[in-house]
Amino acid sequence: MKALSGVPPDLMESLRGVAHEAGAIAMRYFRPGGTTSAKVWQKSGGSPVTEADVAVDTFLKIRLSGFVPEAGWLSEETVDDARRLGRDLVWVVDPIDGTRAYLSGNHDWSIAIALLAEGSPVLGVVYAPALDTFYEATLGDGARRNRDVVRVTAATNFDGLSVSGPAPFADRLARHAPGIVRAPRVPSLALRIARVADGSIGVGLVSGNARDWDIAAADLVLTEAGGTMTAPDGRPPVYNLADPVHGELVATSSGLHRKLVEAINGP
Fold first, then answer.
1. Which of 23, 76, 90, 164 can pair with 116 through a Cys bridge, CB separation 3.0 to 4.6 Å?
2. Are residues 144 and 27 in the same domain?
3. Diameter of the chain by CA atoms?
4. Mean pLDDT, consecutive 10-residue segments, the chain of 267 residues?
5. Is residue 73 domain-shared with residue 106, that is, in the same domain?
6. How far is C-alpha 37 from the geometric centre of its chain's CA atoms?
7. How far is CA 146 from CA 108, 153, 158, 203, in A?
8. How many C-beta neighbours within 10 Å does residue 4 have?
9. Angle in degrees, CA 245, 247, 209, rounded to 5
10. Could you tell me the residue range of the domain that residue 131 belongs to?
11. Which of 110, 126, 64 is nearest to 89 (CA)?
């Protein structure tokens, strides 16, 4: 990655440490196979939030802002500050992606951290503490899982290819790609996309209403692993807009992406 003004050259090394510390905070309240010990309440709109979400968010805001003081901030659990729109650098964070999984004892939740430069991810971390799995990517330097380089599937067609995502979305794909295999839906969007990056899932589908914090870090991991994520019309996600909401998204290897778009949009 080329040098960015105000960004320490060893920032990824620092991010690894901070992400692991954040994971340790979240794990204090996590109960594998059981209900979290954290206090839980409902946000406006009905989605749950726990005291673990807030604790991790507060920790990350303090630590990440210290690394790059001039960067803006966008997080699921922080009131949005419109000043981020005028910043060249922006941290995008989901302190616990997959909160419902987390509070029910499902291991498939993650901590997602991305740094945007002029609206594009240049650093990305997706850490699943309950699985001890750590994905990372730096623009131009490939993607890794637990320090090992990962690549997307080498498949050239959909026969036997695993697909994870909402059932109605997968049904649309299956009508034009009947050979796909339905994989369990991964509750964390960031983790779902990261598993496309390491080839354990062939296609990841995301329903509408995802936010920047759900996908930005994993988008970079996927891209650096040889994959592509776009809307069904082929347009890539645009980050750090006033309303950081996205429509449906499809993710797979760059070699299969065009076929995926055609299948999703088939008559």
1. 90
2. yes
3. 51
4. 69 96 98 95 85 97 96 95 96 97 97 97 98 97 97 96 96 94 96 98 97 98 98 97 97 97 90
5. yes
6. 25
7. 16, 18, 28, 22
8. 18
9. 50
10. 11-149
11. 64
Please answer whether residues 190 and 218 qualify as being in contact, where contact means their C-beta atoms are separated by less than 8 angstroms: yes
Q: What are phi and psi of 197, to 5 degrees?
A: -60, -35
Indicate if 111 and 232 belong to the same structural domain. no
The CA–CA distances, whole Å, from 189 to 51, 96, 157, 241, 251 equal: 21, 11, 24, 20, 11
Dump pLDDT digits (tens) for 128-157.
999 999 999 999 999 999 999 999 999 999
**Site of tokens 């995926």:** 260
pLDDT in tens, 77-120: 999 999 999 999 999 999 999 999 999 999 999 999 999 999 99
- Determine contact, residues 145/221, Cβ cutoff 8 Å: no
